[in-house]
Amino acid sequence: MPELPEVETVRRGLEKYVLGKIICDAETFHPRAIKPSSIAGLSAVNGAKILAVHRRGKFLWFELNREITLVAHLGMSGQLLVQPSLATKQPHLRAKLGLGKGIRPKKIRDEIRFIDQRTFGWLSVEQLTNGIPTCVEHIAFDPFAKEFNIKQVVSNIKRKKTAIKPALLSQGVVSGIGNIYADEGLWRARIHPEIICEDLSESEIKKVITSTVSVMKGAIKAGGTSFDEQYKNVNGESGYFSRSLSVYGREGQPCSRCSTAIRRIAFANRSSHFCPRCQR
């Protein structure tokens, strides 16, 4: 699933191409492309001007010159590509937004194409409350938000009786962190993923968060992490941070710090990768 670095890479890419453009031809090609709770169909954004592209955690939304917004969640395999309108349509094209200039553009030159092989992603037309879409209101600030309060987040995690790994994945505590970057952040902080939050000191929890943020900053610079064709940036290019991963997906390979074989354990319907010597 695309995590914060991948979604931020997509947001930055969209920002280069779509600001100031008019959505002049919004179409849906699959019933699951639109979230069931969407207050309107995709055609509701026809004629709207894109003013900005925002992100919180793994959620993206387009600020429009209207009282509604268009939200996107990439799910497991979603992509938002910016392509010429005459480009060949992809097999898993679920929706598209034709872009033009002016109130009544004569020619559609580019399209935002929503591609989603596994159909777990979605688009949604929503109301805004203080500039935040309805579905994002319950999502915690991510570490790159100016409102992020690391002291409060550390305190909240410290009170939890769960292991540190699922605490990091809880989008109501801190958003944007998924399986890849949780594993990498825990490895950098030398913390075992199964240690109970209450048993960690506040300084250890803070180190986990700052280490994870450091990993994600590196991933953003590398354009995110791609393991297959399911994650691409808006130009259809793969990210290359997979070359810099220390534990995720490296089961049986030597730890770069101590040469101990990386282990993988089943963890809440997921996998956790860690070094049994460095992380205790």
TrEMBL record:
Positions annotated as active site in the UniProt record: 2 (schiff-base intermediate with dna), 3 (proton donor), 58 (proton donor), 270 (proton donor)
Domain FPG-type residue range list: 246-280
Catalyzed reactions per annotation: 2'-deoxyribonucleotide-(2'-deoxyribose 5'-phosphate)-2'-deoxyribonucleotide-DNA = a 3'-end 2'-deoxyribonucleotide-(2,3-dehydro-2,3-deoxyribose 5'-phosphate)-DNA + a 5'-end 5'-phospho-2'-deoxyribonucleoside-DNA + H(+); Hydrolysis of DNA containing ring-opened 7-methylguanine residues, releasing 2,6-diamino-4-hydroxy-5-(N-methyl)formamidopyrimidine
Entry's Gene Ontology molecular function annotations: 8-oxo-7,8-dihydroguanine DNA N-glycosylase activity; class I DNA-(apurinic or apyrimidinic site) endonuclease activity; damaged DNA binding; double-stranded DNA binding; zinc ion binding
EC number: 3.2.2.23, 4.2.99.18
Listed cofactors: Zn(2+)
Annotated Formamidopyrimidine-DNA glycosylase catalytic domain residues: 2-121
Keyword Protein biosynthesis: no
Cofactor note: Binds 1 zinc ion per subunit.
Keywords annotated in UniProt: DNA damage, DNA repair, DNA-binding, Glycosidase, Hydrolase, Lyase, Metal-binding, Multifunctional enzyme, Zinc, Zinc-finger
GO biological process: base-excision repair; response to oxidative stress
Family in the record: Belongs to the FPG family.
Quaternary organization: Monomer.
Function: Involved in base excision repair of DNA damaged by oxidation or by mutagenic agents. Acts as DNA glycosylase that recognizes and removes damaged bases. Has a preference for oxidized purines, such as 7,8-dihydro-8-oxoguanine (8-oxoG). Has AP (apurinic/apyrimidinic) lyase activity and introduces nicks in the DNA strand. Cleaves the DNA backbone by beta-delta elimination to generate a single-strand break at the site of the removed base with both 3'- and 5'-phosphates.
Protein name from the UniProt record: Formamidopyrimidine-DNA glycosylase
Species assigned in the record: Candidatus Nanopelagicus hibericus
